[in-house]
Amino acid sequence: MSEPREIEAKFDIDPSDRALLVSATAIGRFSVWENRTAAQDDIYFDTADSLLAAAGSTLRVRRTAGGAKMTFKGRREASVEGEAHVASRLEDEAPLDASQAAGVTIDLPLPDLDSVSPLERARQIVGGAALRPVARLQNTRTTMLLADDRGASLELAVDDCVGTRVSDGRTTPFDEVELETKSADRSALIDTADALQNLVPGLRPSLKTKLGRTLD
Question: Would you tell me which CATH number, out of the four given (3.90.1140.10, 2.40.320.10, 2.60.120.380, 1.20.1270.10), belongs to the domain 5-215?
C-alpha cells in the first residue's frame, strides 16, 4: 500500500476566541479563500483489548451530509524539540457507499467491508479480532481553506465537539483547532501555526487527540 500522510498542528481554544479566529481573512502569508461550517458524526472502533490504541493507531467512520468515509491513522512520528503539538502520521481514507455505511452503527461490531483500505490496515494490527465501537464524536466544524500567492495551501479546522465514551455514556465537550498541510510544506505549517498564536494569543498547543479526550 502507499503511505499517505497527515501533517498537522493542534491547539486548544477557548469558546470565547472562536469568533476571532473564524472571522480572520488572512493568517501569516496565507489568505482565507473559503470558510464553511458543517456537522460531522464519527464512530471510533477498537478491539476489546485495545490493540489499535496499543499500536498508536485509530479507525473511525465519519458521516457528513456528503456521505460516509472510513479513516485509519497510524502512530505519530517523533516530534522535534519545540514542535510536540505537530503530528506527522500515516492517514488512509476511503469513501463508503450507502450499503457499507448502513452496516456501521454505534451498537454493533464493525462488519467486514471488502477492499476498504483503512480497514485492511487495521486488520494488519488486530487480525480477526472484532472491532467494536469505543467512542462517538459529534462535531460542528468550521473549515477555513488557506492559500498563498505561490499556490501553497493549508486547511484550518475550528471544532466544537462533544465526545461520548461508549462504555458508560460519559460525554466530554471540548473545542480545538487543527492546522493541516495540503500542498504547503512543513515549514509553512510551522510558520502559520506561529501566526495563528499571534492572532489568537489564547491558543494553547495540544498533544491530545479527539479520541483520547473522549476516552480519558
Answer: 2.40.320.10
Which residues lie closer than 8 Å to 191 by C-beta, 6 or more apart? 28, 29
Q: What is the mean pLDDT of residues 129-140?
A: 98
Q: The whole model's pTM is what?
A: 0.93
Tell me how far CA of residue 75 lies from CA of 125, 158, 176, in angstroms.
12, 23, 20
pLDDT of 79 reads 64
For the stretch 192-216, what's the b/e string if a residue is b when 16 or more beta carbons lie within 10 angstroms of its beta carbon? bbebbeeebeebeebeebbbebbbe
Measured CA to CA in angstroms, residue 138 lies from 1, 60, 90, 162 at distances of 30, 12, 23, 5
Q: How is the chain split into domains, by residue range?
A: 5-215
For residue 1, the model assigns a pLDDT of 44
H-type helices in the chain, by residue range? 18-22, 51-54, 98-102, 117-126, 186-199, 210-215
